[in-house]
Write a structure and sequence with these properties.
Length: 65
């Protein structure tokens, strides 16, 4: 099976239409698929701080799928 990796490892800000009004900013991370070798975890960037701390992000990226 051919796996497209164009969008793996990218971070997207959640569109305002999808953000619950009682929550702050959110971001979506596309790591790819849930199969070995088909995931890319993006590096932390300071712009994420409004949605999650670096420590929270590091924990999230270590959670096995």
């Amino acid at each position: 099976m051919v796996v497209r990796k164009d969008f793996m490892g990218r971070i997207f800000m959640c569109p305002e239409d999808f953000t619950p009004s009682d929550q702050g900013p959110q971001f979506w991370v596309n790591i790819g698929f849930n199969t070995h070798g088909n995931q890319i975890f993006p590096q932390w960037v300071a712009e994420m701080e409004s949605a999650a701390s670096k420590a929270d992000y590091d924990v999230l990226m270590k959670v096995p799928l």
